[in-house]
């Protein structure tokens, strides 16, 4: 909700978040780079370039895995939401770690020949017709390109420029990148392992991502938002007295949109459930200081108008609502974003 | 945990009470996870092949007869303590390049070579210094050298680039190293075939294409993999040379 764009709007949470993530990454790299060579004590050690490439590669895989854990974990248990808050910084960090991995490989395996190393990357192995010996580097390059695109477009400027739906779709690239990384590892280093510790960790990591997503989908299916029944252009939401002060009740409308009906100072107002920032679920937010606060990144809206407080300009659609006995109902068609609607008194 | 009891987190506000402990726990778990993964993954890497450049032996200068297979070999006639006469050396240049061009005019002649050796149990390869300091014609008559034909063989093993196998890179074989090995072989570094069973007391042999040609392009798809192949074997001093019968090369399943 910025009026002018700055690289990062720092606040304490972001500093702490980045600090913790950085601590995890530094711990990984330090132990891998400086402690494990001592543990291994090979007669003729692994070349430092390869050792380093493995450290950064394994770190990037673990980071990606954790990034993909965060979404489903937050859906299953909302206490994980703080991990979601600044996930993009972690994503950008991952991109740098992955680039470092690629750099070590490029300057080792693809260097020292009479050809340009970038050209060598493309022509050295062309066994595209086979699984074993497939140029698995191609999957790594694809994943790296995805990560760079995501990192470059991670800023809110791009979010606004591309519009949230397009931005969200673009950032689903992370899943393709992850699948590519899995293929990259499976057809590469895993083909050469005698010791299978890494194999177990790798397969466990990839399965955990798939498993958590399946669990979150199942969880949402059981506990997720329900479809409201429509009659004559009005959709039934719930018993008006059941909505707690400062909270909302979410229903799915026949057209697939979600509406959030909030109770504020004993009166009901309805706005779109999708936050103008990144489609966060506003109905799972709270009213803080008279403003609906998004659970994802804290954008705020006046529940009666769908407008962010000045100087911010974000707006979400509002819905006209009425009471039918004790039942609250909303009109199927949303009002244009930012349209004020008179709140409805909760029956005693 | 129901929504009602969950403390509500807003990024730019202080962490709500009740969430602090959970977030701290998750943070510690995250750092511990990364640390444990680093030790487990990093600490269980396979030992690479026991082979290395021997810069510590110093520069070696020996004389011998140059043979082109087409990959050049040196049949040592005047050696030293490390490389006695009768030894055969494969030769390579710095980086991923062979010395074919420099050896071309010296076939069957006596030459002096100078460089650093690579050792893998035995010393079978030398990386020459640049230009004429690395290889140059030597005075004297070249003695006749024996090539002993050993007949046709069917063998199982892996095609590698000889230089990485001999420790220029560790690890220097296998599929993760395939593109690098191809690049070496394209650059005329002598390719070798590492057999699963010793053959004539050796576990490796220089591998060439049929009739004195280089390793054919068709073989590149098989580099770094477990394959079977057939070809004519010959002994040149203490190095075996296999002339691949290209169509016989096949992947071994599993
Ligand atoms: S989605 Fe980011 S604040 Fe709502």
UniProtKB/TrEMBL annotation, chain A:
Q: Where are the transmembrane segments?
A: 15-35, 55-74, 90-111, 131-152, 172-190, 196-218
Keywords, ordered alphabetically? 2Fe-2S, Iron, Iron-sulfur, Membrane, Metal-binding, Transmembrane, Transmembrane helix
Q: Which domain of life is it from?
A: Bacteria
Gene Ontology cellular-component terms for this entry are: membrane
Task: Give the subcellular location.
Answer: Membrane
Q: Which GO terms describe its molecular function?
A: 2 iron, 2 sulfur cluster binding; metal ion binding
Residue ranges occupied by any Rieske domain in the UniProt entry: 235-330
What membrane topology does the annotation report for this chain?
Answer: Multi-pass membrane protein
Q: Which PANTHER family match?
A: 3-PHENYLPROPIONATE_CINNAMIC ACID DIOXYGENASE FERREDOXIN SUBUNIT, FERREDOXIN-RELATED
Q: What is this protein called?
A: (2Fe-2S)-binding protein
> What is the species of this protein?
Pseudaestuariivita atlantica
UniProtKB/TrEMBL annotation, chain B:
Keywords from the named record: Membrane, Transmembrane, Transmembrane helix
Q: Which residues cross the membrane?
A: 20-41
UniProt-recorded name of the protein:
Uncharacterized protein
Q: Which organism is it from?
A: Pseudaestuariivita atlantica
């Amino acid at each position: 909700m910025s009026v002018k764009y700055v690289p990062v709007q720092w606040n304490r949470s972001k500093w702490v978040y980045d600090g913790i993530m950085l601590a995890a990454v530094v711990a990984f790299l330090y132990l891998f780079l400086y402690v494990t060579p001592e543990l291994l004590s090979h007669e003729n050690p692994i070349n430092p370039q390869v050792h380093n490439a493995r450290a950064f590669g394994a770190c990037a895989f673990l980071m990606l895995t954790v990034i993909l854990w965060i979404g489903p974990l937050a859906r299953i248990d909302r206490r994980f939401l703080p991990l979601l808050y600044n996930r993009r910084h972690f994503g950008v960090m991952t991109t740098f770690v992955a680039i470092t991995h690629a750099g070590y490989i490029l300057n080792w395996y693809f260097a020292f020949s009479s050809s340009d190393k970038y050209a060598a990357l493309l022509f050295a192995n062309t066994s595209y017709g086979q699984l074993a010996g497939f140029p698995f580097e191609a999957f790594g390059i694809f994943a790296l390109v995805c990560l760079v695109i995501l990192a470059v477009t991670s800023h809110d400027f791009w979010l606004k420029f591309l519009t949230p739906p397009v931005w969200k779709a673009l950032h689903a690239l992370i899943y393709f990148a992850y699948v590519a990384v899995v293929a990259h590892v499976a057809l590469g280093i895993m083909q050469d392992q005698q010791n299978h510790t890494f194999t177990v960790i790798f397969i466990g990591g990839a399965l955990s991502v798939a498993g958590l997503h399946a669990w979150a989908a199942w969880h949402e299916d059981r506990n997720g938002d329900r479809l409201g029944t429509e009659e004559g252009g009005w959709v039934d939401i719930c018993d008006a007295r059941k909505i707690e002060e400062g909270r909302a009740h979410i229903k799915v409308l026949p057209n697939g949109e979600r509406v959030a009906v909030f109770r504020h100072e004993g009166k009901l107002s309805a706005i779109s459930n999708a936050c103008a920032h990144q489609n966060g679920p506003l109905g799972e937010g709270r009213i803080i200081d008279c403003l609906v606060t998004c659970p994802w990144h804290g954008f705020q809206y006046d529940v009666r108008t769908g407008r962010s407080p000045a100087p911010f300009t974000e707006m979400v659609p509002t819905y006209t609502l009425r009471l039918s006995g004790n039942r609250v109902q909303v009109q199927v068609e949303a009002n244009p974003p930012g349209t004020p609607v008179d709140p409805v008194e909760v029956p005693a | 945990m129901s929504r009602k009891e969950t403390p509500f987190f807003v990024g730019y506000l202080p962490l709500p009470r009740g969430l602090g402990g959970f977030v701290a726990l998750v943070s510690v778990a995250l750092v511990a996870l990364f640390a444990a993964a680093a030790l487990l993954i990093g600490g269980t890497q396979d030992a690479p092949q026991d082979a290395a450049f021997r810069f510590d032996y110093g520069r070696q200068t020996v004389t011998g007869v140059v043979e082109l297979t087409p990959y050049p070999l040196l049949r040592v006639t005047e050696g030293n303590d490390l490389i006695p006469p009768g030894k055969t050396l494969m030769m390579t240049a710095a980086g991923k390049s062979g010395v074919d061009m420099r050896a071309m005019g010296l076939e069957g002649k006596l030459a002096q070579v100078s460089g650093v050796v690579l050792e893998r149990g035995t010393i079978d390869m030398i990386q020459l210094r640049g230009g004429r300091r690395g290889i140059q014609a030597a005075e004297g008559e070249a003695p006749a050298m024996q090539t002993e034909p050993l007949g046709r063989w069917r063998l199982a093993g892996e095609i590698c680039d000889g230089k990485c196998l001999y420790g220029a890179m560790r690890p220097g074989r296998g599929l993760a190293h395939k593109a690098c090995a191809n690049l070496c072989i394209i650059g005329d570094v002598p390719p070798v075939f590492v057999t699963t069973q010793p053959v004539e007391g050796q576990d490796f042999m220089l591998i060439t294409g049929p009739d004195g040609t280089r390793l054919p392009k068709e073989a590149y798809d098989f580099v770094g993999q477990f394959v079977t192949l057939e070809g004519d074997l010959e002994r040149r001093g203490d190095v075996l040379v296999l002339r691949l019968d290209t169509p016989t090369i096949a992947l071994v399943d599993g």
